[in-house]
Amino acid sequence: MFVYEKKLQYPVRIKNSNPRLAKFIISQYGGPSGELGASLRYLSQRYTMPYPELKGLLTDIGTEELGHLEMVGTIVHQLTRDMSIEEIKRAGYEDYFVDHTAGVYPTAASGFPWSAGGIAVEGDPIADLNEDLAAEQKARVTYENILRLCDDPDVTDVIRFLREREIVHYQRFGEALRRTMDKLDERNYYVMNPAFDR
Question: Would you say 155 and 25 are in contact if contact means Cβ atoms under 8 Å apart?
Fold first, then answer.
């Protein structure tokens, strides 16, 4: 199903170590609004979407989110690959370093590890598409928060690209919800009990 192209969707070329930045950017890897949760949410929701174009949309965006996960992981890796012990201490990166050294581990900036409990898969197209709209907005806000804290142009360039993709995904999910609402029937309304209102 997937074809892996051995290059990032957008280049990541960070010159300077900066564990202080890595400390909060990791949240878009495994945090509550991060790329890992987004990819698994969309790739799981696609199974119960009643229309082929919705299945295709969720597959496309879910696959792209896996690419974004790889980009965020690359950012974190490049920010920490050459860090010194002094930089680790100065950045307050010791807790992460003790557990993961310079490994890229799915966690929130707060240190809470990734959990599937943060993603919603309801099996109802309207509920799932509304969840997806909210998820894209939360990811956009997280990227904007990162931009407020980031002072490295090599990093902000990539974060701006990722934020723009969240906006595009939000627009595509909005179109999908409108199309779904235009087709309200037993296939996408009270999916498990179409006779509910009869």
Answer: yes
The pLDDT tens digits for 131-158 are 999 999 999 999 999 999 999 999 999 9
How many residues make up the chain in this entry? 198
DSSP string, the chain: -----SS-SS-----S--HHHHHHHTHHHHSTTSHHHHHHHHHHHGGG-SSHHHHHHHHHHHHHHHHHHHHHHHHHHHHHTT--HHHHHHHT-HHHHHHHTT----B-TTSPBP-GGG----S-HHHHHHHHHHHHHHHHHHHHHHHHH---HHHHHHHHHHHHHHHHHHHHHHHHHHHHHHT-STTTSSTT-TTTT-
pLDDT at 196 over 80: no
84 alpha-carbon distance from chain centroid: 29
- Note the Cα 95 to chain centre separation in Å: 24
Report the predicted TM-score, pTM, of the whole model to 2 decimal places.
0.92
Q: What is the rounded CA–CA span in Å between residue 55 and residue 65?
A: 15
